[in-house]
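Bug report (template v2)

What were you trying to do?
Predict the complex of my protein with NDP.

What happened?
Run completed; filing so the output is reviewed.

Input:
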Amino acid sequence: MVLPSWGTTLVALGAATVTAIILERIYHYITRPPFEPAGKHCFITGGSTGLGKGLAIELAKAGADITIIARRKAELDNAVIEIKSQCRHQGQKVIAISADVTIKEDIVRAYDEAKIKIGRDPEYVFTCAGAALPKMFLDYDLEDFDRSIKLNFLGQTYAAHQAALRMKEAGIKRGKIVFVSSMLGLLSFAGYGTYSPTKFAIRGLADTLRNELKQYDIDVHIFFPGGILSPGFDQENLTKPEVTKEIEGTNEPQTPEECAKSLIHGLRSGNYMIMVDIVSEILRATTRGVTPANNFFLDTLLALVGQIIASGYALYMDWLVKSLKTKQH
Ligand SMILES: NC(=O)C1=CN([C@@H]2O[C@H](COP(=O)(O)OP(=O)(O)OC[C@H]3O[C@@H](n4cnc5c(N)ncnc54)[C@H](OP(=O)(O)O)[C@@H]3O)[C@@H](O)[C@H]2O)C=CC1
Ligand SMILES: CCCCCCCCCCCCCCCC(=O)[C@@H](N)CO
């Protein structure tokens, strides 16, 4: 008997893997939850600037009715004009409601007002409002921890709770709740002591609801952007420690438009965890835990590569922070 050579075995294994990846992709495509924004009421917190506004524009182009939520009226009004100018047709409604997502009564009122003004409860909800205040842990005031958890975690939690409640009561089928985490919800390093924990927490909530809300046919997704060139990004860079800038320097920030397009692409593909580039895809595959794969065979390959990169990156981060110690002496 002639045994196949190593070369033949490797080619056969490679071909089997590629076939498995393609077959699973086709299956995933056929069975994915629908994403059809045309005619849907899309409710976007943090919709007046940055990612939220970029997303509102993309959804308006796709034919959706839009409600944006934020605190400052002037930014909301400007955003409404910009979003309206991108609508596919005249009949689309675009409204703004001034509300603070950290205040429970505000969130309830925002959903009530949106229902009256648009004429029905939202079918798709995107919880974009959030912000970072990067500093070294010891430079924070104790109040900073409360502020971050209120905005970045509770703000999304309140909005999601009201969304699910109203979708259930209105009997909306295939409603969507889309959470906004960050790559910093999957890894963290010096400078993000108030922010990263809240973005990890959102992952916990999203994992819970992805499973729990299936009983009402509500789809849950979570987005993990890298840097976004937004007013929030300019603001956080004012306090960001140098070492934090250095560690995250390997990430190329995107425009809100590019970022919103990645999110929409992920929703169209029916992915639960939605990423923005190849590095973030590797990070997802390496840290996804007990969630559905986007593509089991490809994710497993990426995770293998990711384990190596992640271990190397941890050494690099530690080396950068340790070199601060040498600088201090
Ligand atoms: N920028 C980045 O590099 C990254 C950002 N992200 C995340 O993406 C999301 C969008 O970020 P980005 O595009 O930078 O956002 P921006 O800072 O540009 O916009 C934030 C939006 O949220 C609103 N907002 C802030 N606080 C509240 C509040 N208490 N109640 C209601 N609305 C509020 C703001 O309006 P107003 O102030 O008037 O209320 C604004 O509309 C955030 O969740 C952020 O954590 C994730 C990865 C990277
Ligand atoms: C397995 C592979 C591991 C290697 C990963 C290396 C990536 C490191 C860069 C992380 C960049 C984080 C940007 C988040 C921006 C953000 O959320 C803030 N701007 C807050 O708004």
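What did the reviewer find?
Strands lie at 41-45, 65-70, 94-98, 124-127, 176-180, 219-223, 273-274. Residues 296-328 form the longest helix (33 residues).
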